[in-house]
Design goal:
Elements: H1 2-24, H2 42-55, H3 59-72, H4 77-92, H5 96-109, H6 116-128, H7 138-154, H8 159-189, H9 192-205, H10 212-226, H11 229-242, H12 247-258, H13 270-278
Membrane topology: Lipid-anchor
Keywords: Cell outer membrane, Lipoprotein, Membrane, Palmitate, Signal
Organism: Paracoccus zhejiangensis
């Protein structure tokens, strides 16, 4: 047991010494890097890039080495590996545009490579990680959805598919949240028709998101304000059937009851069609 433990310690010391020796040829960081890297092998430069990723607070230092491999050894196996690491390094640095560029170059150059799935995933993340606020440009959200869908459809068995599905649902929910934000603003300002148009988008196009119950309740509110009781009752009926335990249904029910109305489908409107499809299962 003692000999085995001593052997393990010796091996660890040798590995540390090897890495340290390899990195010592370059100095402490990019600022200390030799101006001419032609004297180093692709593997040495690559390992230095890995070292910078692990130890530097600036991922751009690592990207410098990976990009140099592309320049000095453009057709080597190390250049291929360095390109995907460039994308990763740029993403770590939150330089999303450059991350997309490197990931797309990898996809275009090595479409059949086993790392193509990861490149696609990094491309999607470069959009997804920019949609953290509801008020941001929704074009990024659409781009994220398209890119995540590509990962899911092209690499369904990959380790990145499950993560892409979860992020796709969150991005989809994000779009619905934006529609709700605008709809609530219009409703507060008394612009009921404009508000209804926004809530309708959520009900028709984002039915699977968490915002549908509130959208239906807001429709009840807006239609009652316009005196369109049939539409208000139908919205309440859909809400009651699918989300009866939701506090939004309690609110909608109270609004309808206050007008002497019930949550039952009435008339013939777009909401009636939704009721037939969602509640009755009649699509024709």
């Amino acid at each position: 047991m003692a000999r085995s433990k001593s052997s393990a310690i010796l091996l660890a010391m040798l590995l540390v010494a090897s890495v340290t020796a390899g990195c010592s040829r370059f100095g402490g960081g990019q600022s200390d890097a030799p101006k001419n890297l032609e004297n180093f092998t692709a593997e040495e430069i690559y390992k230095r890039g890995e070292y910078e990723l692990e130890n530097s607070r600036k991922p751009e230092d690592a990207v410098f080495y990976f990009s140099e491999i592309e320049r000095l050894y453009p057709y080597s196996e190390w250049a291929k590996r360095a390109l995907i690491m460039q994308a990763y390094g740029y993403h770590r640095a939150k330089n999303y545009e450059e991350a997309r560029g490197a990931a797309q170059r990898f996809i275009d150059t090595y479409p059949g490579d086993e790392d193509a799935a990861y490149a696609k995933y990094l491309l999607a993340l470069s959009y997804y990680d920019q949609i953290d606020e509801v008020g941001r440009d929704q074009g990024l959200t659409f781009q994220a959805l398209q890119s995540l869908r590509s990962v899911i459809e092209e690499y369904p068995q990959s380790e990145y598919a499950r993560s892409s599905i979860l992020k796709f649902d969150l991005a989809f929910d994000h779009l619905a949240a934006k529609e709700m934000e605008i709809g609530r603003y219009y409703l507060k300002q008394g612009h009921y028709s404009a508000a209804i148009n926004r809530f309708r988008v959520v009900v028709e196009e984002f039915q699977t998101t968490t915002h549908t119950p509130e959208a239906l309740m807001r429709l009840v509110e807006a239609y009652l304000a316009l005196g369109l009781n049939d539409e208000a009752q139908t919205a309440g009926a859909i809400l009651g059937h699918n989300f009866q335990s939701s506090p939004f249904y309690e609110d909608a029910y109270a609004q309808l009851r206050g007008r002497g109305l019930s949550a039952t489908p009435q008339g013939n409107s777009w909401l009636t069609n939704v009721y037939r499809q969602v509640v009755q299962g009649r699509w024709l």
